[in-house]
Amino acid sequence: MADRLLNHIPLAKLAGIGPSLESKFSQLGIKSVQDLLLHFPLRYEDRSTSSAIGEVAIGETTTIQGCIIKSEIIITKRKMLLCHIQDDSGIAILRFLHFNMGMKSSLAPGKWVSAYGEIKSGSHYPEIIHPQFKIQSQKEAHSAFADANEERFTPIYSTTHGLTQNVIRKAIQSALILLKRNPPDEILPTTLSSRYLPVIESLDIVHNPSLTTDVEQLIAGEHLAIKRFILEELLAYHLSMLLIKFDNQRQHSYPMHITQHYIRPFLAALPFEPTKAQKRVVQDIYQDMAKSVPMMRLVQGDVGSGKTLVAALAALNAIENKQQVVLMAPTEILAEQHFHNFCQWFEPLGIKVELLTGRLTAKNKQLRYNDIELGEISMLIGTHAVFVDKVKFNHLGLVIIDEQHRFGVNQRLSLWEKGAKDECHPHQLIMTATPIPRTLAMTVYADLDVSIIDELPPGRTPVTTIVIPNSRRDEIIEKVNNACLNNRQVYWVCTLVEESETLDAQAAEMLVEELRLLLPHLKIALVHGKMKSDEKQTVMKAFKSGETQLLVATTVIEVGVDVPNASLMIIENAERLGLSQLHQLRGRVGRGSAISYCVLMYQAPLSKVAQQRMKVMRESSDGFVIAQKDLEIRGSGEILGTRQMGVANFKVVDLIRDQHLISDVQQASYYIQQDYPESAQQLIECWLPERQKYINA
Ligand code: ADP
Ligand code: MG
Which of 54, 177, 503, 586 has its CA 20 to 30 A from that of 189? Predict the structure, then answer.
């Protein structure tokens, strides 16, 4: 059944697909016939009707036909082939920047040609640059395109270098033929399937819509033919999460009861009172931890809302109950900062805290492994190095994952599986700062219970955000200087030149040189992802202690870093970053009582979208609002930054476009799970085969 849509048949089985095409397709994530069938068009084009040349509108995408009256190669800045065509109503030009002599001779005067593309305004005549064209026989001329393909909409697929639309189309057509010979069973329960079209018919419409099909509806995800697949995929996703949750509820964990042995003295020594929101969330956590079923709770709280304290209070409960705790952070810098905080908090209470990151020497790692196994370490903090197989806990009672959106759903699930290896499963606490709209959270975190910290600690002043072009760098440097002279500290974030840590690091190194020349009296330091662990640690310590005034950094400081005396942040190339990332970065300032500023520097001119983004940053400091705007500005068609959203890749679902379906899907999932467990299983096998292993139902 997992092969409902021929998932077991590799692409190479299709006629005409050899190793080279196979590897091209696999770059698109297409490995099986099923993947191919579920590679849905991005859009459709109508190539069936042709327009009279005299009536075409600039910007319109259409087909024109005419007789070639002149065909010439011209050389201006570069060589071009210009082909003039004429019909009864006017003249148009086909312009080719890439061509060969064969093309020139086939586009000879007197021949009839039809050409398809976007009409641009030329200096004398309308023109199409690089049209798709076809030389026509005299018989075809004047009659509209005759071949069958063009009586339908032409699907346009996302593709990769070296894979043409025609090749994709042909492959999909042969996949469809194969499917028709092996008709799939229905996997939706009848109550649902009766509302949709059968699978083959639906796929036919998606890949070969006739000219009467409402393709706008297909693109909008509203056509019955596509809705069935959206529904199937959402159901599969949701069901997998539900099954994981049910599975978890059948497990046992160690129930923990508060003794106050550590919690009371810890709170007494804390220089501030937890906020109401923190107290409420901690109560949720304590209630979960008192049960003999593993906790699976997500704590969502905006940057600076104080999630670390919540984690510490949860950890103390476990440690009071003689259990070990592990806290995992996505970056070394953050792991080190947590280590520093937890040492300060826990060591006076006599609790042993240790750090484990990938950068430790083999010998030191081994020492840690031993201590962990012997149960000598109560509180282990680290990066994902804490989840290698060699780490064997003596009695692990609680797993805390910080900034989980950095890990993604599948990674989170694999950690969950790793943590849960003994008879007794640890409780899990998952923390995230990226707030996502509620409907999306219902899907992405369907397996978790959620608590929200909806209040910031008192005494914070909102950060004032300023947007300035690069050209006014002098003023910014002046501002940095003033802040430092007033005993404040400054971050200067040098962002993504490319998606490359090395290039990022190089750019940051150059910037430091420049700033040292311009501001010789300041203490300036640099931190980036390519530095050694202990170097990073030294730099961060010096900044935290106030010794360093200006810290030049790559986005390694994006999450978690907490230095309350820093009150100015400069972000270079801010226009290239997403809103959630800007919000996270900006969250590094405004943590103390001083008025803080965030300067977003950009390279002019700003695109429309970038202008909107900058405006949102200036106007809002609320993570939920910013997340919502981020989605709106990106629009529904665009792919979500999966890293940012912590969302698994969907094949046909667009979470923004389809979010209105989510509450129905949630309800349907429950009854399918109850009444049609086989359907549930089949849906997951078909859509999320890789998630199978987390479900031991
Ligand atoms: P985040 O939620 O972004 O992880 P942190 O846990 O880093 O936030 O906390 C941000 C800052 O707020 C830290 O300096 C922390 O000590 C401080 N803080 C946390 N809770 C409170 C509180 N209840 N009152 C005052 N300051 C607090
Ligand atoms: Mg944090």
Answer: 177
